[in-house]
């Protein structure tokens, strides 16, 4: 048999498959996608209605194409659903009107931007899961219940979560796109890195956070596709390899493939491959003074690119105020960061800073650029973290109890897998190996001779369908044999003593039992309804002599045996 033909798959790892680095096929797919969106009324090109910019920038459209493997029709379906969802939930209005304190309460329960970027210029977020304890979640739920945010078709807590994603796509990504000290300044930033710290998180807390984490994951997958890049999980507890199999089912497979699970020893060496040490928080081995809950601590390159006007202060550093912030284009096409939302019910609109670069809306979101190929060695640092993940629990169990000489020749469990001596204590008792010179090597019809020295001798031959025993009296051919002895136990080992098996009731007997139960239940029900007299003692029922009519009815029931069987099969399935 000839080996299957292998086809090359284009990389979607940044900057490949992003604006400025599309293949000819990907560019054609983008053009077709924009055409479909325009024809269906979901996209307006530049110059429509005297508006100089298109309704959606190319990099945003490319996120949907990457999520759908550059199939325009599939990308359009998701894009259409998202546009209708945004309109239905008033996303444009929500981000500009949400209460700033509600926004801040929500921000503290989800990944937070550190104000730093990785070596490619992609923003780095930190998420400490231990802060999501029952006390903090309960306090958050209480504020949700008293929220003044106008609810549309979704819960208030989900509206708050939408606002956080809007901040990522409307403010953080455009800002990082405007910083030109990166290797590919022609390509807008449209993703984020996440350091997820799960140290000090117990198994119960993990389970209680299931819906909380799923909300964010499902939202990103459905309406903010391809906004997640690498996810580094830090501080995994000892039980994590055991629960990984069901934890990863909370997320879509593409997200799972981007997850790196790092031990304490691998944490800083791995993080520093992708992120400069000055941009890694100190608790993870870097030099950055950043704690979860703080506002972003801007790196020097970002500080250099902006001019502050009305900043807040944090540890002698200029920072943005809490709440949502948007970029607005001035008449001279310069960009201004404006704090929006509401404070004490009043709209907020305060200029915070201006960009000192020559970036405009088109530069922040991406315009028409010439595509250039990406060298293969530039994609050497993978975005796929599957190799760092523990095996599924059920896969690890396959190797429990095996010695090193019998391990499979393929990938073996990592050191994070459950040790064999621990896991085996929870398994069923292992039978001692029997000393027998006649080891069975097969169960086919040609191997009966090898079963002669065992208690299985002749059973398989006699248990063929032609020789099966009719044990239930109703035509069902079955044959029972002891599986513990088939081809394994030699005859010098006695069979376990077993009591003779009582014959199972036939379908007719089962029908009579069911009928009796129904009659008994109905009798009690009728007595309670009509007010039957209460008796201190239960009288022994007197057997009633059946009338000729009743005996005739019994004969008809006995004659209707197939119909009764059919009824039982329909109710309980064939036994």
Automatic annotation (TrEMBL):
Biased composition (Low complexity): 402-420
Ranges where the record places region Disordered: 368-504, 530-562
Gene3D superfamilies in UniProt: CRAL-TRIO lipid binding domain (3.40.525.10), N-terminal domain of phosphatidylinositol transfer protein sec14p (1.10.8.20)
Source domain of life: Eukaryota
InterPro entries xrefs: CRAL-TRIO_dom, CRAL-TRIO_dom_sf, CRAL/TRIO_N_dom, CRAL/TRIO_N_dom_sf, PI/PC_transfer
Family matches, as CDD domains: SEC14 (cd00170)
One Pfam family it belongs to: CRAL_TRIO
Residue spans of biased composition, Basic and acidic residues class: 532-559
Composition skew (Polar residues), residue ranges: 383-392, 432-457
Name of the molecule in the record: CRAL/TRIO domain-containing protein
Source species: Delitschia confertaspora ATCC 74209
Taxonomy of the source species: Eukaryota, Fungi, Dikarya, Ascomycota, Pezizomycotina
């Amino acid at each position: 048999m000839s080996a299957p033909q292998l086809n090359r798959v284009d990389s979607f790892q940044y900057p490949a498959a992003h604006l400025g680095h599309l293949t000819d096929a990907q560019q054609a797919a983008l053009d077709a996608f924009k055409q479909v969106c325009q024809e269906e009324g979901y996209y307006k090109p530049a110059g429509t209605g005297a508006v100089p910019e298109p309704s959606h920038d190319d990099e945003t459209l490319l996120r949907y194409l990457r999520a759908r493997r550059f199939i325009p029709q599939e990308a359009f379906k998701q894009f259409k659903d998202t546009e209708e969802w945004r309109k239905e939930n008033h996303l444009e209005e929500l981000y500009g009107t949400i209460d700033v304190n509600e926004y801040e309460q929500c921000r503290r329960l989800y990944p937070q931007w550190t104000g730093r970027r990785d070596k490619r210029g992609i923003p780095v977020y930190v998420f400490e899961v231990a802060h999501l304890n029952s006390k903090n979640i309960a306090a958050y739920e209480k504020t949700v219940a008293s929220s003044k945010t106008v609810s549309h078709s979704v819960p208030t807590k989900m509206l708050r979560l939408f606002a956080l994603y809007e901040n990522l796509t409307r403010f953080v990504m455009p800002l990082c796109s405007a910083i030109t000290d990166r290797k590919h300044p022609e390509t807008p930033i449209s993703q984020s890195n996440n350091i997820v710290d799960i140290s000090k998180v117990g198994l119960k807390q993990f389970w209680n956070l299931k819906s909380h984490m799923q909300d964010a994951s499902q939202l990103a997958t459905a309406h903010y596709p391809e906004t997640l890049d690498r996810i580094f999980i830090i501080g995994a507890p000892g039980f994590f390899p055991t629960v990984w199999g069901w934890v990863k089912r909370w997320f879509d497979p593409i997200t799972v493939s981007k997850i790196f699970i790092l031990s304490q020893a691998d944490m800083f060496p791995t993080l520093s491959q992708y992120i400069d040490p000055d941009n890694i928080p100190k608790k993870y081995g870097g030099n950055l003074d950043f704690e979860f809950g703080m506002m972003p601590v801007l790196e020097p390159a970002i500080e250099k690119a902006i001019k502050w006007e009305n900043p807040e202060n944090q540890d002698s550093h200029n920072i943005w105020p809490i709440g949502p912030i948007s970029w607005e284009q001035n008449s001279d096409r310069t960009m201004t960061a404006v704090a929006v939302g509401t404070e004490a019910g009043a709209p907020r609109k305060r200029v915070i800073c201006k960009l000192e670069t020559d970036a405009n809306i088109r530069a922040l979101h991406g315009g028409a650029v010439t595509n250039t190929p990406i060298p293969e060695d530039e994609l050497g640092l993978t975005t796929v973290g599957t190799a760092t993940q523990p095996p599924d629990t059920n896969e690890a169990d396959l190797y429990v109890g095996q010695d090193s000489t019998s391990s499979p020749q393929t990938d073996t469990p990592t050191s994070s897998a459950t040790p064999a001596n621990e896991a085996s204590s929870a398994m069923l008792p292992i039978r001692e190996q029997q000393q027998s010179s006649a080891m069975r090597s097969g169960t086919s019809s040609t191997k009966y001779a090898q079963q002669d020295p065992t208690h299985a001798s002749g059973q398989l031959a006699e248990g063929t369908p032609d020789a099966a025993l009719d044990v239930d009296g109703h035509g069902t051919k079955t044959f029972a044999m002891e599986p513990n002895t088939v081809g394994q136990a030699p005859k010098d080992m006695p069979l376990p003593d077993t009591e003779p098996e009582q014959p199972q009731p036939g379908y007719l007997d089962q029908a009579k039992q069911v009928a009796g139960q129904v009659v008994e239940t109905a009798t009690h029900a009728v007595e309670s309804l009509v007010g039957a007299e209460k008796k201190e003692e239960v009288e022994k029922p007197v057997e009633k002599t059946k009338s000729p009519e009743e005996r005739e009815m019994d004969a008809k029931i006995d004659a209707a045996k197939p119909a009764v069987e059919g009824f039982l099969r329909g109710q309980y399935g064939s036994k």
